[in-house]
Amino acid sequence: MANTYIQIGSTVTIGSGGSSTIDFTSIPNTYTDLILVMSGRLTTSGYDGTPWVVGAISLNGTVIASGKLLFGTGSASGSDNNAQAAFISDTDATANTFSSMSMYLPNYQSSNNKSISLDVVTENNGTASLLGLQAILSTVTSAITSITLTSNGSGAFAQYTTAALYGIKNS
Fold this sequence. Notes:
An eight-stranded antiparallel β-sheet has the order 1-13-3-9-10-11-6-7, with no helix packed on it. Strands 2, 4, 5, 8 and 12 form a five-stranded antiparallel β-sheet that branches. The chain has one domain: Jelly Rolls. Strand 6 and strand 7 form a beta hairpin. The protein is an all-beta fold. It has no helices and 13 strands.
């Protein structure tokens, strides 16, 4: 059985001046799964000198607090049992480079806690970048009707950051 991906709403493209959030609201209940993709960069520097910042993801207004992360940075690899959500390139990364993220939400209409898989790659033409795979079990049990991406700290999503949400139907 083939899957059909159908874009929900328009692609969000951040304009000049940036934006502290990216919102997908009024998500219909006509699909089996959701996938959100983003190419992003933040207008702030990280707290630890790495070329990425952890961005927050909210489902129906509830922030995804933690998950199991497997990562590689080019010079190290490891895991974290209490990782935050999305890693996004920041101003410590090479100019004009953007991170890539894909978030998969199977069975988003169920009354169970929502499982999420997230993969992210930050871009940097230097020595540090990050590849991460996360498995997350959120506390949200209602059908997902909204997803919000938030830049943590004082920064915003930079101009040309884009995000799109797709519904998946089995056909």
